[in-house]
Structures are given as C-alpha cells and as structure tokens.
Amino acid sequence: MEILYRSTRSDTAPITASQAILKGLADDGGLFVPTAIPHLDKSIAELSAMSYQDVAYEVMKLMLTDYTEEELRSCIRAAYDDKFDTPEIAPMKRAGGAWYLELFHGSTIAFKDMALSILPHLMITAAKKNHEDKEIVILTATSGDTGKAALAGFANVAGTRIVVFYPKDGVSSIQKRQMVTQEGDNTCVIGIDGNFDNAQTGVKRIFTDAALRARMAEAGFLFSSANSINIGRLVPQIVYYVYAYTRLCAGGDIREGEQVNFVVPTGNFGNILAAYYAKQMGIPVHRLICASNSNKVLYDFFQTGEYDRNRDFILTSSPSMDILVSSNLERLIYHIAGDDAAKDAGFMKELAEKGAYRITDEMRAKLSDFCGGYASEEDTAAAIRTMYENERYVIDPHTAVAASVYGKYQAASGDVTPTVIASTASPFKFESSVMKALGKSVDMDDLDLADELSRIAGVPVPQAVAGLRGKAVRHTTICGKEKAAMQAEVERFLGI
C-alpha cells in the first residue's frame, strides 16, 4: 500500500514520503501526516527475533513507501552503526518496577540521536530521488537536544547546511558546550534572547515566508527541517517503541499480545506521538502516559480539553520539556478531528491569535489512549534521588519527570500493566541538576562535575562529554527573538 502525506491544514494534493521529508513543513504552515497508518506485516514473534536495524526496516518500509529496499537499508546501515555505544542500540533496563528504554546511547547522548542519525541519509536520498539540485538548508529550533543531534548528523554532509537556534539561557551547560563547539564549515549555531517557543515560532515564520523562499531558490537553496515537525524525524521514532515491545516478548517478560504502558517525558509531543503511531500499527498499548514538568500545558489539555499557552514560561531542570507550544500535538488534533484539515486549521488559527483553543467533546472521547501527569521540580529531584538510593541507577531530570508521573499514576489507578518508561537522555547531559538532586556539591567546572558524577554512578563519562575537553568555542552569535533578527542571521550565513 502506498502511503502519501498531506498537510494538517489544507486539502492540497498529497505528496510522497521523500517529498515530505525534503519540504519539512507544508507551504501552508501545516505538518505532514500520512494518508493512512499501515499495520505491521510481520508478526510479533518474527520481529522479536530481529536486530534493531531489521525492525527499523520493517517499520519504516511501511511508512516511507517510495524508498526502495536498497535505499532504506542503506540509510539504516549508515545510521545505526558503531556511533552507538551499545550493540542493542536501545537497551532496556529493569528498575523501580518498570523497564527503562535507554534512548541515549548515540553520539550526543540524547534520544534525538535515534532519529537524527538517519534523517540526513533519508534527506540526501530524497534529494536524489526527486532530482533536487539545490543545496538543502536545515533550519532548526532546539530546546537543547535536537540542536546538537542535528548538528552531529548534518556536519560536513555534502549538499547541506544547517542553522540551529537555541534559547541562550534555556539549555544546560553541557548542551550549550556541545553546540557552540560544533565543527563543520556548513554549521551555524545562534543563541536567541528568548525561550524555545520564541525560537520555534521564528523558525516556522521564516519557513513560511514566500518571498524569502523565492530568494532562496534563486540563490540555489532549499529549506528543510530537522525538528520533529519533519515526518522524517517522526517515523524513525516509531521504531523503538515497536522494538521495546518485541524485546519484552523475546525476554519472556510479557506474552505476545499482552498490553503495555508507555510513559514519555513530553515537550513538543513528537516522542509520544510516535508511540501513538506504534499502537495504530499494531503494538498492544494500554495507556500512553504523557509526563510534563512544571510547564504543564499538555497535562492541562488532557484534563480539560483546552490547550492554553497563556501562562508563565518556567525554566526547569528538564529544559528540553520547557515548551508551551507543542507543535506535534497538531498532528493528533488533526487525527481526532476525523482527519479534517479545515477543523485543524481553525484550532491553529485560534492558537496563533488567542493563544488557546478548546476541542469538542467528540474529539476528547478519542483521547482515551492518553492520560497526563506532571512533576514539580521537587518531585523530579526526589525521583532521581530515590532511584539512586533504591536501585543505584542514575537517571536524568527528563526521565525522572516520567518516573515521578508513573509513580503517581500507578498509586492513583492501581494499574499493574507492564510499563516502559522512555529514558530520553544521559544523566551526564544534565549533571548539575542530577548532582544537586543527589545532595552533592556542584561548585566546579561542568567537565569536572562529569568526572564526579562518573565516580558516584559507577559508569564512565560518555565520549560525547569527555570529548568536549579542550574544544574551542566556534559559535558565539546571539540575536533577538524576533523573526526579522533571526532571518537576518540566516541570510548572513547563506550570503544572500
């Protein structure tokens, strides 16, 4: 079955997967969604006997139907290789009554590596398939992890350039150091005087500026995105939920067909949306538990049916979740509205103009797969401390938000369904917050702090952090949060 992709905001003709990956964002500002969700065509038993790479092929072949088997397998081989520090790619750790799906074994020690290791290969292949001769300019906003993972993926990739905007005061010390020391003549990293929502809004406005697109085309450039608004980011994320389920079956921890819960620390909604798509493809899921930090706009949405970003933006110890406009929620809104682009466009117009919208009761009834919870800063620190004291397992603040929310959910519901928690980052990426939670001193340089965390946790400092020692800062630009200021930096970098 051929799967095409259409915009969430208009009934324009659908396009192929490779075209959607190249474009990143629809011309009308909508996100690309599949015209149908295909069902897995291999049994759970068959998938349980496969490697991560083979499971990736079986999932992605169904969603990216205009890629040949040779093209797709080549992209997968290039992505999931020895840049991951474990042969399992996404190993499972049993701790505290749940399984932790460790998604941080890639080159930048965050879950974004799982998709951003393959996106450059999918994109370059897409360019060849569609006879695109323009240089691809990756334009991305980051709350901390996407930026470095995208930079690592696209650095020195022929035919591409990459521009990353990050909130200058809204990322961890290690996250910032990873980005500003990035090598590669095709890379550009810019801090903004604002938060992630400002960066994301600016990037979307630049994307949809028709006059700028025309000037870009004339100069030989084509915009695309590495954010999870790009369907080429989202499809590879489905893989690890399928893989996690099959590992539990392979290990005898669950029976084939038995349901599981997935708990996902959530900011931009892409990671948990991938779990939702995995369920639509046939993975038996009981609950998708959306874990928020103090910026609990998603928790409030699942409680009330109203999405309202009109609130204070809170900087937390889990900065990748410090988001008030969760872009990927638009895809879910489109689906529960009956794949109605006009309805979705209306909600997004309300969000842009009023900062809020309320879905219908009929749409709310279609959210039964989901439940929401949130963790305060105190809850997050307590989860880190408790996990270490009880299990000698050190988790990062984002994973701790999920662990805390799961504990509250289980206490309130009594649900004993086997549960997988998405562990989205290494604790070494947020070592200051982790050490504070453990009651340790943080009065030292961030790299010395990593050494101390290594001693306490009993695990070596990841190469992604150890390799930062002595690296020169290459990116020092700071700009305003307005679209005009951000666009000026993009034009300066491209020389247009």
Output the structural class. alpha/beta
In terms of DSSP E residues, the strand content is 5-15%
Radius of gyration (Å): 21 Å
* Main sheet overview: 6 strands, mixed
Number of helices: 22
| Helix content range | 40-55%
**CATH class type of the domain at 92-108 and 232-460:** Alpha Beta
Look up the CATH topology of the domain at 92-108 and 232-460. Rossmann fold
Spatial strand arrangement across the major sheet:
3-4-14-9-10-13
Which architecture of the domain at 92-108 and 232-460 would the CATH scheme give at its second level? 3-Layer(aba) Sandwich
Form type: globular
Structure overview:
- It is a single chain.
- This protein has helices spanning 17-23, 44-48, 52-63, 69-79, 113-116, 119-129, 145-154, 173-180, 196-207, 210-218, 231-250, 270-280, 297-304, 329-336, 341-354, 361-364, 377-391, 397-413, 431-437, 446-457, 463-466, 483-494; strands spanning 5-7, 32-34, 92-95, 98-102, 135-141, 160-167, 187-192, 221-224, 260-265, 285-292, 306-308, 356-358, 370-374, 419-423, 478-479.
- The protein is an alpha/beta fold and 496 residues long.
- The chain has a domain at 92-108 and 232-460: Rossmann fold, CATH 3.40.50.1100.
- A six-stranded mixed sheet has the order 3-4-14-9-10-13, with helices on both faces. A five-stranded parallel sheet has the order 8-5-6-7-15. The protein has a two-stranded antiparallel sheet with strand order 1-2.
- Helix 17 (377-391) crosses helix 18 (397-413).
Short description:
The protein is an alpha/beta fold and 496 residues long. The protein has helices spanning 17-23, 44-48, 52-63, 69-79, 113-116, 119-129, 145-154, 173-180, 196-207, 210-218, 231-250, 270-280, 297-304, 329-336, 341-354, 361-364, 377-391, 397-413, 431-437, 446-457, 463-466, 483-494; strands at residues 5-7, 32-34, 92-95, 98-102, 135-141, 160-167, 187-192, 221-224, 260-265, 285-292, 306-308, 356-358, 370-374, 419-423, 478-479. The protein contains 22 helices and 15 strands.
